[in-house]
Amino acid sequence: MRHDGGTGPQRASDQRTTGRAVVVAHPDDEILWLSSALADADRVVFCFGDPFGRPAKAAARRRAVAALALPGLIDLRIPESGAGFAVDRARPEATPQGLQITDPAARARYEANFPRLVAALRPALAECAEVYTHNPWGEYGHAEHVQVHRAVTALQAELGFRVWFSNYVDTKSWPLATRLAGAPCWTERRRVRPDVALARGLMKTYRRHGAWTWTPFHRWPAQETLYGQALEVEGRHPMAGEEMLDVAGLRWWPPPWRRARRRLAPLSV
User: Fold this and answer.
1) Annotated region Disordered: where (predicted)?
2) CA distances in angstroms from 32 to 109, 199, 221, 232, 251, listed in the order given
């Protein structure tokens, strides 16, 4: 992992191995939000498989995943719920399974996926000291990103690993990030350089197979921040006052009113 400054992640206890996993909701999330962690990972886990209601995209995604050169790739292929953006953006509500979903049918699928996700991740993460995954607000607010974060943190107490997440955000997820900003959730942070060469190489594979889901004009930042969440609750800090990376500003031609960096409001005294 490339890093600049900060304190490196602490190892788990001597009784545990030092495995490192990158766990993301969908293929291509690993290079958008966690490329800095890929080089040192010994396994990469994709949680969801076929896109909901899009069979052509499902076939393209399977071809792309089969062609990826990623370490210890684990493809869980849990069907997507179709709940990704079925959320009240102005007043998002967190639930034990992730987020409150507004569409009843999608909510049923989404909630049913959570125990499947936890059960499938348990053996995949059993020997890990560090797990890198989505942040609590799901980067740009995707409900399945939030669900994966919840599933990983649900297993943290049982398996004893340290959780890491990055500082990407979007206008759609800003209300949720702001709402969660006061909750203590990190114990250390690292400023790191995204692995742009690796990310671009993998992006070419996704695009070649028609499975790239993000803008073709995405520009990786020069630096991102990783936040480590230790098992112990004592000593955790809130996200309030922390600098975020706005994904709409990370384009070759970003809107002039969207800066790449914005800061969560500090806690009021």
Assistant:
1) 1-20
2) 26, 8, 10, 29, 12
Q: Could you give the domains of the chain? A: 15-239 (3.40.50.10320)
Cα 52 from Cα 37, distance rounded (Å): 28
Phi, psi torsion values for 127, nearest 5 degrees:
-115, 30
pLDDT for 14-46, tens place per residue? 445 689 999 999 999 999 999 999 999 999 999
Model-level pTM?
0.92
- Torsion, CA 229, CA 234, CA 235, CA 239, rounded to 10: 60
- Which amino acid, 238? P
Amino acid letter for position 226: L
Query: Which tokens belong to 74?
Result: 């684990």
Is residue 18 packed enough to be buried (19+ CB in 10 Å), middle (13-18) or exposed (0-12)?
exposed
Coil, strand or helix: which one is 44? strand
Write down the pLDDT at residue 242.
98
What is the C-alpha end-to-end distance of the chain, expressed in Å?
37
For residue 135, which of 228, 44, 50 has the smallest C-alpha distance? 228
Residue 235 exposed, middle or buried by CB count within 10 Å (0-12, 13-18, 19+): exposed
Share of the chain above pLDDT 90, in %: 85
User: Would you call 148 helix, strand, or coil by DSSP?
Assistant: helix
Q: Which amino acid is at 127?
A: E
Residue 178's nearest CA partner among 141, 148, 233 is 141
